[in-house]
Specification:
This protein has helices at residues 9-16, 24-30, 32-39, 110-118, 134-141, 153-160; strands at residues 57-58, 60-62, 65-69, 77-79, 86-87, 102-105. With 162 residues, it is an alpha+beta fold. The protein has one domain (9-160). A hairpin with a 2-residue loop joins strand 2 and strand 3. The structure holds zinc ion.
Amino acid sequence: MKRLGSVTAEMYFLAISDGRITCLADYAKHGPLSQIARRKNVQLPPLSERIAESEPLPAFLHTDRWLVACPDCRRDFQLVWTMTLLYMCATCWNADVGGRWRPVGLPPDRAAIEAAMSRRPRPQERNWLPGETGEHLLREEADPGRGTGITSIQQLHDLLGA
Ligand SMILES: [Zn+2]
């Protein structure tokens, strides 16, 4: 069977929510993010406005999932909504950018990265960090350790240099 590519928030939440959560708007309105926000008494800004003019947060691939991590509090990471490239930290609520949504950036060579990953049999070997080139990925394939071997969010932030 043909692989669909690495896991995005759209794929993941569609699968676990019986079709209730198909996009970031659903996730922010009645998904896990909205539930945490309600519990913390946080009002999420509408997606159509309140977007920070900051550099896009770089998406990265960890165990075959596209993720983005909070560069401010360094205590949160989430799957990337690839159709709506915005991120709201569920811990600090993007306080450093005035509570606005932060833009997220996928690599321009995403398809090539996913193609390289699809040659790796196990999901835990499918890791990619911003700046890693096709050459780097090929070198990793010759390495029995393969990939970044990240096991904690702290390691992840150290690697991202956040
Ligand atoms: Zn945060």
